């Protein structure tokens, strides 16, 4: 067919040289569409679509959203094609049929795309908070069952089998493998990590039970805070670390280490709080202390005389859960004690009195207010509104069934609160003070999970992760002191913003992140490189041409649809500077630069 829908035929008489012309117009057989089935397709699925109409042939081409797809012509009135809809799609598909390069063509109104009630971006963001990082499979699972059902699955998960061993590296490596791969216990392990950072017992206090406190926090992660604190306080590792195991009543001044830390760090905190977590002040505007030195002395006396059974120095305890017991009655101060205005009766043995102290501290309103804010910081945002804290503290005080400190109820309330979920729509602009810095562990596991990093030869990858954790000042289960890795009240210099994790965000920590990602991505030029532990082939086919599909996939998976135009432009410019035939390098470098960006460093 000519470009114009007509031709001019000219004839010349050879004898007379008379010329005559005739214009002939052509009728073009454009494709005609009368019906399409199905009329809607599902996001995240591939669907065979059948089109009926007329004038179809081997010369008929099909285009979906401007991209040609392979069409199978069944007859002059029927053809089929496969519509593959991205999981992130929220708009319809436009079908266009064309016969050869005929400018006359027919387009169909957009084919409806069925989007789950929970969008891909919303599920991705929810899993940023409720797991160690989203994966495409887990996002689809959450979309199919909903937030509430996912939480029920996680709350029903079994405790993770950490390996207790004198080799602390092996214990840590095991955690990494669990955190990065065990879908059924994602939230349990993440909440366990938050509790461990609160209690912060350094590893190797007693070599044979180096993972005792991590095991307790994992087992008790979703129970009551009273049970959790009791088990931690009775564990011999904590007893050794805070010097209250084997304390003797004969001492004029029993060691006060535990007494101070159990109040200042584990429960009520240093200062009294209002019901919304803000500091309480007296009538003169002075901050009110939460406890006195007399309270410290009373608790120190109450926990004298604790001992342990067995030889924890030489015998490896498979469970890592050795509780302290009451030792010689003469070593325990069994007199009455006054703690926070409450009298503890005389005559109790050491273990019973410690349990009484723990129960008293766990029930204090200040404990619920402080730890509600702490868990919000760990899971959602470092700067929650006072109303957010107040709502969660109310759940801590009463879970609806009269129980106090029901961790499961508190975690659920935190994750489903309107303040946690209001940014699930990426079109909603995040407040400047919302979000939290990714600590080293969350950064690494999110990268591992998002890009499907798999162990190479087993432990080596996890060993690299452990090394990374220590270089970036946050070795898993190995806090440098009872004060943990960083202060929960640390703020960004020159601002009023709390950003605890930023205290560790040093130049060497950033360098450690860069090296770790380059290592596990298998980028060339990395010292002691490893074969790529990521299947880049599934990313490479998205990196062709301008790389738009690759950027879209990373945006929705890693940034829940909020990647800025500036970052996208930077990534695309770099991608297009790489040979269009080297799709693997395009994919690797784009993913590397994306996760090393300041935008990825902050969970919003």
Structural features, described:
The chain is α+β, with helices and mostly antiparallel strands. 39% of the residues lie in helices and 14% in strands. It has 23 helices and 17 strands. It has a 5-stranded mixed sheet, with no helix packed on it. Strands 3-5-9-8 form a 4-stranded antiparallel sheet, with no helix packed on it. A hairpin with a 5-residue loop joins β10 (93-99) and β11.
Q: What's this model, at a glance?
A:
With 604 residues, this protein is an alpha+beta fold. The protein is built from 23 helices and 17 strands.
Features:
alpha+beta; 604 residues; Immunoglobulin-like; single chain
Write the layout of secondary structure elements.
Blueprint: E1 6-12, E2 19-25, E3 32-37, E4 40-42, E5 46-54, E6 60-64, E7 67-69, E8 71-75, E9 78-84, E10 93-99, E11 105-114, H1 120-130, H2 136-145, H3 147-155, H4 168-181, H5 186-199, H6 212-219, H7 225-234, H8 236-241, H9 257-264, H10 293-302, E12 306-307, E13 325-326, E14 337-339, E15 342-344, H11 350-362, H12 365-379, H13 386-397, H14 407-416, H15 418-421, E16 436-437, H16 440-450, H17 459-471, H18 507-521, H19 537-540, H20 548-558, H21 565-576, H22 583-595, H23 598-601, E17 602-603
Parallel strand pairs: 4-11
Antiparallel strand pairs: 1-2, 3-5, 5-9, 6-7, 6-10, 8-9, 10-11, 12-13, 14-15, 16-17
Helix content: 25-40%
Q: Got a strand count?
A: 17
Strand order in space, largest sheet: 4-11-10-6-7
Mean pLDDT over the residues: 87
Please report the number of helical segments.
23
Report the radius of gyration as a whole number of Å.
32 Å
How much of the sequence lies in strands comes to 5-15%
Flag low-confidence runs: none
The end-to-end span amounts to: 56 Å
| Main sheet record | 5 strands, mixed
From the helix content, strand content and strand pairing, which structural class follows?
Answer: alpha+beta
Number of domains: 4
From the spread of the alpha carbons, the general shape counts as elongated
């Amino acid at each position: 067919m000519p470009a114009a829908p007509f031709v001019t035929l000219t004839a010349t008489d050879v004898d007379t040289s008379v010329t005559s012309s005739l214009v002939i117009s052509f009728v073009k057989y454009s494709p005609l569409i009368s019906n399409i089935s199905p009329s809607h397709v599902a996001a995240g699925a591939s669907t065979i679509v059948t089109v009926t109409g007329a004038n179809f042939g081997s010369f008929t081409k099909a285009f979906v959203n401007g991209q040609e797809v392979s069409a199978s012509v069944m007859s002059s009135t029927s053809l089929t094609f496969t519509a593959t809809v991205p999981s992130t799609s929220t708009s319809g598909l436009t079908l266009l049929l064309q016969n050869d390069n005929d400018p006359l063509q027919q387009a169909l109104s957009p084919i409806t795309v069925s989007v789950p009630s929970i969008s891909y971006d919303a599920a991705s963001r929810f899993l940023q908070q409720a797991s160690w990082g989203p994966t495409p499979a887990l996002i689809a699972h959450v979309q199919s069952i909903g937030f509430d059902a996912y939480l029920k699955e996680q709350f029903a998960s079994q405790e993770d089998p950490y390996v207790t061993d004198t080799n602390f590296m092996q214990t840590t490596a095991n955690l990494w493998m669990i955190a990065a791969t065990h879908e059924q216990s994602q939230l349990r392990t993440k909440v366990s990590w938050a509790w461990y950072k609160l209690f912060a017992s350094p590893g190797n206090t007693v070599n044979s039970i180096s993972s005792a406190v991590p095991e307790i926090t994992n087992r008790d992660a979703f129970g009551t805070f009273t049970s959790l604190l009791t088990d931690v306080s009775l564990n011999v590792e904590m007893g050794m670390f805070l010097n209250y195991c084997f304390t003797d009543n004969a001492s004029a001044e029993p060691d006060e280490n535990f007494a101070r830390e159990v109040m200042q760090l584990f429960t009520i905190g240093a200062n009294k709080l209002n019901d919304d977590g803000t500091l309480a002040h007296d009538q003169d505007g002075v901050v009110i202390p939460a406890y006195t030195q007399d309270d410290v002395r009373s608790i120190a006396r109450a926990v004298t005389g604790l001992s342990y059974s067995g030889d924890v120095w030489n015998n490896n305890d498979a469970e890592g859960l050795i509780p302290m017991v009451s030792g010689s009655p003469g070593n325990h101060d069994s007199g009455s004690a006054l703690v926070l205005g409450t009298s503890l009766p005389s005559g109790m043995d050491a273990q019973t009195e410690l349990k009484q102290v723990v129960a008293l501290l766990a029930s204090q309103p200040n404990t619920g207010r402080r730890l509600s804010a702490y868990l919000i910081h760990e899971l959602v945002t470092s700067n929650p509104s006072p109303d957010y804290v107040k709502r969660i503290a109310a759940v801590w005080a009463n879970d609806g069934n009269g129980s106090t400190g029901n961790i499961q109820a508190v975690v659920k309330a935190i994750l489903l609160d309107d303040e946690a979920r209001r940014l699930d729509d990426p079109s909603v602009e995040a407040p400047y003070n919302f979000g939290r810095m990714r600590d080293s562990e969350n950064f690494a596991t999110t990268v591992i999970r998002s890009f499907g990093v798999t162990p190479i030869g087993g432990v080596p990858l996890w060993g690299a992760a452990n090394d990374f954790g220590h270089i970036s000042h946050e070795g898993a289960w190995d806090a440098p002191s009872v004060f943990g890795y960083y202060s929960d009240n640390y703020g960004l210099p020159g601002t009023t913003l709390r950003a605890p994790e930023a205290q560790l965000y040093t130049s060497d920590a950033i360098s450690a992140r860069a090296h770790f990602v380059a290592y596990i991505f298998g980028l060339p030029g990395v010292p002691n490189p490893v074969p790529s532990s990521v299947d880049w082939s599934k990313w490479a086919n998205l990196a062709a041409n301008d790389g738009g599909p690759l950027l879209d996939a990373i945006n929705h998976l890693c940034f829940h649809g909020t990647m800025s135009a500036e970052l996208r432009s930077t990534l695309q410019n770099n991608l297009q500077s790489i040979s269009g035939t080297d799709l693997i390098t395009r994919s690797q470098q784009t993913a590397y630069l994306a996760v090393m960006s300041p935008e990825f460093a902050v969970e919003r």
